[in-house]
Write a structure and sequence with these properties.
The chain contains 18 helices and eight strands. The protein is an alpha/beta fold and 342 residues long. The longest helix has 22 residues. Bound molecules: hypoxanthine (HPA) and zinc ion. The site of zinc ion has 6 residues, from loops. InterPro entries: A_deaminase_dom (IPR001365), ADE (IPR028892), Ado/ade_deaminase (IPR006330), Metal_Hydrolase (IPR032466).
């Protein structure tokens, strides 16, 4: 039995593996600036968020047709299944496609085609969260959201991503107000590279229910008190933090400190094709680095379930499965361990 997981911080465009990228380039006759897979992979040496985003936006130029978005999403879901993912709330960046001439409806329909097969084919329930690029004008985000609402295109929530510093959440208050008025769920990247003040703004001005990354909240005790008190989830992405140099090495990752502080943290892969692994790889690496053990792995899985936008009944069913997994782990470890850890 695999630990049942929920993934809440996953950019579908960030699951574009080099092999699929080259296949789509050939299919769509797109000329790539990289001569080989090796040459492309050699670019995956990022100095900060912006250096990653430059490559991320460039690479997704191979996504042109509806079926390309379906193939991309299916590839992620198939891999997520092997990781034990049972529910995924997936980010999608409309402006990364509309800005290069791919119609919103084409891209979204392609993603949806895959999501509609997800429960039957991979046993993964899904939700779709449209993320707006904060380094583009808020008016553009507002226009796209209005188009989605007017067209009755089914989405579950909105988020905020891309270059963070100098693009504070307060710029997007109107966008989030409109989304809230239409019953959409609200999340935002904050406190990845940006200061704790951006996390405060995301909470108090945008009214987000969940903070993506939020790792720099650790610099502000009053903010930590607030996050703990209100059980605001932080979707933490350890491989991303290392690759984008938010922290130096995995050994420096504050995940244990965050757990011990009582924060509602869960583990996610962010852009797994670029950062060295999927959600299971992130968890395995943390377990190896910090000796988390079954109890803290189960806690992280439970946190993800609580942080999700699943119904209470679906949350309870998945949480039961986590307890079953934990019991099998304790059994496998033998009676001495079972007594010690109980
Ligand atoms: N941060 C901000 N924007 C992003 C990311 C990220 O980690 N991945 C894709 N867009
Ligand atoms: Zn992200």
């Amino acid at each position: 039995m695999k630990l049942p997981l929920v993934e809440l911080h996953l950019h579908i465009e960030g699951t574009l593996e080099p092999e699929l990228l080259f296949e789509l380039a050939e299919r769509n006759a797109v000329t790539l600036p990289w001569a080989s897979l090796a040459e492309l992979r050699a670019q995956y040496d990022f100095t900060d968020l912006q250096s990653f985003l430059d490559l991320y936006y460039r690479a997704l130029d191979v996504l042109r047709e509806r079926v390309d978005f379906t193939d991309l999403t299916c590839a992620y879901l198939a891999r997520a299944r092997t990781a034990g993912v049972r529910h995924a709330e997936i980010f999608f960046d409309p402006q990364a496609h509309t800005s290069r001439g791919v119609p919103l409806r084409t891209a979204l329909a392609g993603v949806r085609d895959a999501l509609e097969r997800s429960v039957d084919e991979w046993g993964i329930s899904t939700q779709l969260i449209v993320t707006f690029l904060r380094d583009r004008p808020a008016d553009e985000a507002l226009q796209i959201l209005r188009e989605i609402l007017a067209g009755e295109i089914p989405i579950d929530g909105i988020g905020l991503d891309s270059a963070e510093v100098d693009y504070p959440p307060e710029l997007f208050t109107e966008v989030f107000d409109l989304a809230r008025a239409h019953g959409l769920r609200l999340v935002a990247h904050a406190g990845e590279e940006g200061p704790p003040d951006y996390v405060w703004q995301a909470l108090d001005l945008l009214g987000v229910e969940r903070v993506d990354h939020g790792i720099r909240s650790l610099e502000d005790e009053a903010l930590l008190d607030r996050l703990v008190r209100d059980r605001i989830p932080l979707t933490v992405c350890p491989f991303s933090n290392v690759r984008l140099r938010v922290i130096d090495t995995l050994a420096d990752h504050p995940i244990v400190r965050m757990i011990d502080r009582g924060l509602l943290v869960c583990i996610n892969s962010d852009d797994p094709a670029y950062f060295g692994g999927y959600i299971d790889d992130n968890l395995a690496a943390l377990d190896a680095e910090f000796g988390l053990g079954p109890d803290r792995l189960a806690l992280l899985a439970r946190n993800g379930i609580e942080a999700s936008f699943l119904t209470p009944a679906a949350k309870a069913a998945l949480a039961d499965e986590v307890e079953t997994w934990l019991a099998t782990q304790r059994e496998a470890a033998g009676p001495a361990t079972a007594i010690r850890s109980s």
